[in-house]
Amino acid sequence: MAQLEQEAKKRRTFAIISHPDAGKTTLTEKLLLLGGAIRSAGAVKARKTGKFATSDWMELEKQRGISVTSSVMQFEYDDFKINILDTPGHQDFSEDTYRTLMAVDSVVMILDAAKGVEPQTKKLFKVCSDRGIPIFTFINKLDRVGKEPLELFEELEDVLGIASCPVNYPIGMGPTFRGVFDRFNNEIEFYGEGKKLSSLKVDGPEAVREALQSQADEDVLVQLEEELLLLEEAGNPFDMEKVLEGKLTPVFFGSAVSSFGVPTFLKHYLTMAPPPAPRESSIGTIEPKDDVFSGFIFKIQANMNPAHRDRIAFLRICSGKYEKGMETWLDRTGKPIKLAQPQQFFADSRENIDEAYPGDIVGIYDPGIYQIGDTLVGKKDTFNFGKLPQFSPEHFAKVRPKTALKAKHFQKGMQQLAQEGAVQVYKTERFEETVLGAVGQLQFDVFIYRMEAEYNVDLDIQPLTYRVARWLNDDEIPTEALRSTSNMVVRDHRNRPVILFENEFGLQWFQQKNPDIHLSETSL
Q: Looking at the whole model, is its pTM more than 0.70?
């Protein structure tokens, strides 16, 4: 018990969220570099150099310079065991991101200093806020001209509704950027492009101006002095309880591309961020220190190693100790499963492990028996952590193999990619044609790419005009839904009936005409 509790307290499991191009994958790389997990960081878009981000393992990600699938990276730093879940930044992959956010204990939110709070940040923040996840903010690209810090704090409060407390504060910005003042440690960290960074301890905010006299312009010093005084007198006081409740975000400034501010951020984060938290289950609260092993599957990825055509289920451990070869029970079926080859990840590479603890993310070989949201328990008397919801897609298309001889490969690929949640797959009610549903068009591109690269199937795709999907709460499909020419009735991969509508107006009209038919925007 003591060892289990001690190991759990060392764990920090977090996701990094942001709007595309805010610097998420760059920050991830620099954190891995700090932890000694990699020797050199590869910028996401560094195609000419042949260097790609470690967290972008899919070939398509390297070609396009974007992250389109969640990846897991684990490393040690200062006696902490860190699990980073790098989520897709592109808005078309918000459902994959949502599932990933179910598996973390805290979140690092990156803002571009010039752009502030952007649309995708708002969507992802809402998911975190609804769950009460602690949020740490890293304001990036201080080496470029951006919004004033006080304006960014105001945005956090007005747009996202979260109070902020700057742990460090920028000295200038863009061409006048000279570093940051660490308000918690009374320390100035100097910024120098291509130079060795240095720091200087001072007696307090009032001594900052004097220490910087030869380093910064007078205008910068006057503004810094005024704003530090304002923060001391009228800023939000640091309150750890509010941070852990997700009501106050500690704010850090830096430049991920030059690594400035990243080591300071990581050190503060590791002392502030929570270890694995208790989780609610069907039998009550499950504590990380509980002896009985438990965990849930939040992601399934097929063909991470195309040579072996394997499927890996990503398992977040919630309680107990995970041991190689241990017997567990799948709550959904009640059947025993031996976990023979647990693996830990570093993007696309992995290694077998003998043990893991609460907070860790491990990969288990999936012969096709797991579903997203499944709970595994180390005893026959099981419980579950609830299902992960499926969301309404906004784009639909009919799809079939170009060659009938590839029908078997087509069905296998469709089944596996549907189970891992890459897209949603439906069958039409009458002719059992295959319909794909996706949050964004890019998901179709990835699906086509993967079917060709991993299953050797070329596809014919026919876009459909539908933009809204609603699940029927009853398995029986009403004749009113089947008769309509402006919608389509399909069944999802679990055979649940779904109605596709051309737009919100069509949905509202249908509901007005059929008030007794209950529709749901998500599916559990």
A: yes
